[in-house]
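Chain A, query sequence.
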Amino acid sequence: MNNPHIVIFDGVCNFCNGAVNFIIQRDPEGTFAFTPMQSELARELTQRFNVPNVGMDTLVLIKHGECYVLSDAALEIAKDLKGPWRFCYAFKVVPRPIRDAVYKLVARNRYKLFGKKDACMVPTEEVKSRFLSTNI
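Chain A, predicted structure.
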């Protein structure tokens, strides 16, 4: 996988893990790679890209040397998925403060709505290569 788009997600969040599985199913070329926010790699990347106010509720996408967070990250991911999901990118016309407010509302309540695990998910052998360690 050369220059994957790296998605940093909350590894214990059921909603976030579901989102990762959703991306994998709609990304047959393996464009996206993943690392949980709880990993050392995620800490290194968020520091390297100077991600402000990073927290477990912050979705981060690193794509072609650019860093996207919150709703911008979600829309950039959707743009590269197969099927009709790429049309979600049209929501980019909605002003970022409004998009991010909706994102933060869902993020703030995701554990209540979808639950959480005691530990980060363990990928299956089939998709294990899409999850990054501290070596990129």
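The chain is about 35% helix and 15% strand. Residues 55 and 89 are 24 Å apart (CA to CA).
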